[in-house]
Amino acid sequence: MPIDAAEALAAAPRVREIAWDHTDVQLYHLGIGAGPPATDPREPRCTPKSRLRVLPSFATVAGGGPPGVIGGLSMPGVDVDLAHVLHGGQHLRLHRTVPARGRASAASRIVAVYDKGTAAVLVLRTEVTDADGPLWTDEAEIFVRGEGGWGGARGPSGRPAPPPAEPPDHVVERPSREDQALLYRLSGDWNPLHADPEFAARAGFDRPVLHGLCTYGGTLESVVDTLLDGDVTRVREYRTRFAGVVYPGETLRVRMWRPAVADGGGSAPDRGGSVRVAVSAVERDDASVLADTVVRYG
Asked: Quick check: is 194 catalytic?
């Protein structure tokens, strides 16, 4: 079987040294669509070196290249066709503010393998530590079509929860560029699904799709700008499930709900709490893109 769950779970962590600087951060910010309008006083925090503040989701690409989805497929016990792979979800926990320049050690390993019957789900956890201690913990859920059925644990439900029934507290629309995927992939995700029409067709799509982590980063920027006045240092945790694809050039509708104080979330942006988020593609009748999305802040 292409996925040997026992071997994947027993393998030692794969450790690599990563480094980044302001150029990598700026490229990432531009890749997710941060920056405009230049007249917004919050946006310069995302671009000029002199005032650079790092959007925490940069952690998913810091150092370039694997881990991520492609990195997970190179782990022991995993041998699958990339065309059968989708990014299922992402969960980022921040232990400290991500610096604009850094050098750290990233240790990655498969921590769970779930049997969904017609598919398998791998959970790749990466712990990143620098000289001062833990920086962040990142988990990527990797969905592999056609690789289930060996009788393993099914794991958590894969069905996204519906968004809250009440109207959102805030709605932001984010247009994407036709070349958004080509710009974003310069941060290190070279999966041909996002650039090669023939590969995209083999994977079952009409044309190349936008990276899920590009939408993930752009959504976090919308939340930070809308609720936290651009203060990226307040983000503590960010998780989502990739419910559908985005085609470059589409507009994203980002809806946000703040929990009431009674729900433990804090009703005002100047208090610590959380916000639920749902993202959809405007041009396709609000087709769901990100679901089960929560940003926790302090």
From this structure: yes
Orientation angle between helical segments 22-31 and 212-227, nearest 10 degrees:
90
- The residue behind tokens 């809250």 is 164
Backbone angles phi, psi at 108, to 5 degrees: -120, 140
Contact 213, 185 (CB under 8 A): no
Question: Which of the residues 24, 189, 225, 292 is marked catalytic?
Answer: 189
Listed by start position, the domains of the chain span: 5-297
Q: What is the pLDDT along the chain (298 residues), one digit of tens a residue?
A: 589 999 999 999 999 999 999 999 999 999 999 977 777 766 656 666 667 899 999 999 999 876 677 777 888 999 888 889 999 999 999 999 999 999 999 999 999 999 999 999 999 999 999 999 999 999 999 999 999 889 899 998 767 788 888 999 999 999 999 999 999 999 999 999 999 999 999 999 999 999 999 999 999 999 999 999 999 999 999 999 999 999 999 999 999 998 754 344 445 666 689 999 999 999 999 999 999 999 999 9
Q: Quickly tell me which residue has 């990226």 as its tokens.
A: 232
**How far is CA 45 from each of CA 23, 38, 118, 221, 246, rounded to the nearest angstrom?**
14, 11, 45, 11, 26
Q: Indicate whether this model's pTM tops 0.85.
A: yes
User: C-alpha angle with apex 291: 145 to 241, nearest 5 degrees?
Assistant: 45
Closest CA to 284 of 157, 181, 176: 176
Q: How far is CA 9 from the centre of its chain?
A: 23
Distance of CA 193 to the CA centre of its chain: 16
Active-site residue identified among 194, 211, 225, 292:
194
> Measured between alpha carbons, how far is 211 from 57 in angstroms, rounded to an integer?
13
| 189 catalytically annotated | yes
**Which homologous superfamily does the CATH classification assign to the domain defined by 5-297?**
Hotdog Thioesterase (3.10.129.10)
Q: Which of 171, 296, 169 is nearest to 234 (CA)?
A: 296
